[in-house]
Amino acid sequence: xxxxxxxxxxxxxxxxxxxxxxxxxxxxxxxxxxxxxxxxxxxxxxxxxxxxxxxxxxxxxxxxxxxxxxxxxxxxxxxxxxxxxxxxxxxxxxxxxxxxxx
Length: 102
Fold this sequence. Notes:
This protein has helices spanning 48-55, 60-72, 76-79, 84-95, and strands spanning 9-10, 22-33, 36-44. The chain is of the alpha+beta class. A three-stranded antiparallel sheet has the order 1-2-3. It is globular, with a radius of gyration of 13 Å.
């Protein structure tokens, strides 16, 4: 479980100042969709295509949800069920690449 600003980072970053390539984010509450349980979201640095698609998705929350959906490659129905704190953790990860919250 992740608490507040605590996040589990994986990737090629070896220095504290380096931006990690990936975030294996453990959800506070796993989400079950059919027979599949989603306990983590595997996020990576967003691509331009992902950012463009997310940018067309309505308000800021819709844009962030779309970016999580595209980047983590999980169904939107899963993203719709994640907690606000998990959504905020994902947003903080994406913002490390110099992006404003979508």
